[in-house]
Amino acid sequence: MRHLFRTCAAALLLLPAGLALAQVPPPSFVPVPPKKPAALMRTAQAGPAAAPAAATAAPAASPDIQVAAAANQRAANETVQRINDYFNSFKTMIGDFVQVDPNGDRQQGQFYILKPGRVLFEYEAPSRIELVADGRSVAVRDKKLKTQDISPLSATPLRFLLSENFNLARNANVTGVYQDDIFATVVIEEKQPMVGTYRLMIMFDAKTMQLKQWTVTDPQGYDTTVAVSNLDTSQRPDPMLFVINRN
């Protein structure tokens, strides 16, 4: 059950392998980032580069390189702000999802978000799984066996999607921003004690900034991708959908 939780939760949390494609290619209708993004722009949180070990000072960057770097930084800041504005423009979301697991299996279903902290992913048959977060915890349920595995919401990448005030500019875990004509992509890395590093890649439509998909890479290097569609932010889900029975 715990392995199932990691698979489901990873799939529904967001995160890809640094600069690479998912190890298991998603189906053709699931968008995939370019192998070599047009630009990789570091966010403002990145600290100054470490001084070289050699005594000889590194040559100063040319004016053209400095101008290009400044332009990339401005573009990154603008992309981050547009993503922030998009995520903070809604409190609820309903839509469809398609999940591609590390072994290539595909599952699909519907999801419901009610900020802050609440989400429900309902998998269609033959899957028996359901994932729900109630603001404090995340539960993966086996509907046939009537069992569930519960973990703190704070210990999962889901919290990034479900936060009430989404602000990438203040998120120290953001390691980079991609931008091209099709997608805007944010990469987040998080180290968890005794577990390892998770990577999360979230992809948005470059024009509208609408959420398109995410990929979670677990510490063992396995990728799970979730693509979303038919998004509706006008309906408010029933709060009772997000109740976790702990009895």
TrEMBL record:
<dbReference type="InterPro" id="IPR029046">
    <property type="entry name" value="LolA/LolB/LppX"/>
</dbReference>
<protein>
    <submittedName>
        <fullName>Outer membrane lipoprotein-sorting protein</fullName>
    </submittedName>
</protein>
<keyword id="KW-0732">Signal</keyword>
<dbReference type="InterPro" id="IPR004564">
    <property type="entry name" value="OM_lipoprot_carrier_LolA-like"/>
</dbReference>
<keyword id="KW-0449">Lipoprotein</keyword>
<feature type="signal peptide">
    <location>
        <begin position="1"/>
        <end position="22"/>
    </location>
</feature>
<dbReference type="Pfam" id="PF03548">
    <property type="entry name" value="LolA"/>
</dbReference>
